[in-house]
Amino acid sequence: MKAVMLLLLIAFIGMKIRAQQAVEVSTARTVSLSFPASVSYVDLGNTHIDARVVGPGSKVVLVKALEQEFAETNLTVVTVDDVVFSFRVKYHPSPANDKMNIPARGASASNYAAGIIDNGQRAVGMVHNKDGLYAQVQGIYVLDSMLFFHLKISNTTTLTYDIAALRFMVTNAKGGKRTASQQRLLHIKTLEGAYKQVPRLGIAVMVAVLPKIALPHNLRLQIEIIEQDGGRNLRLVVPPRKLAKAILLPVH
Which keywords label this protein (predicted)? Predict the structure, then answer.
């Protein structure tokens, strides 16, 4: 028995281990985890959660709580290329994500951004309605020195909404006249998704990647969406507390 355990330990050490962020689950909603390679093994920390692979050779694991308000536990997933993904699992009556795409190791900012686009993150509170257009921040994520902003624009009009520019800038929280130090345009490192046009009676989802910033209470991050040859410009204001609660992405 000891020899078997030793062999298992040696094999486990030889695998590439990737730590992951927490996964929220509930008894009412199933959370799907989509991996970069087929799943070969799933291990549960306790019997308060259930996790199953969709089918043979599948890359998707479905996770659900079997009980409410259980103590935080863990979930381990091993893919066919011997990469170990370890998750912290905790109960939440309304999980933040019902679909999570797990990037491959060594993934670029673009890979992460593309994965975030399909995440089912609930809106985090910043919205703007104007002339039949509705913009919202779906989620804010952080990875090392980068922030990822998951944005959604809904167009309820019969006119397409062509996007001329997407701007992120630091502004004074109290408004009024802005000084140079209170109005700073931030450089967008990467843009993924439908960031050029919102179809009529449709939606567009995009992810913008910016350098990580932390703001004092008297400043805000302002997101401006500028219409091409039009005046239906949209503006979202992100307070410092929302940046501080950015969801931590896994490091690969």
Answer: Signal
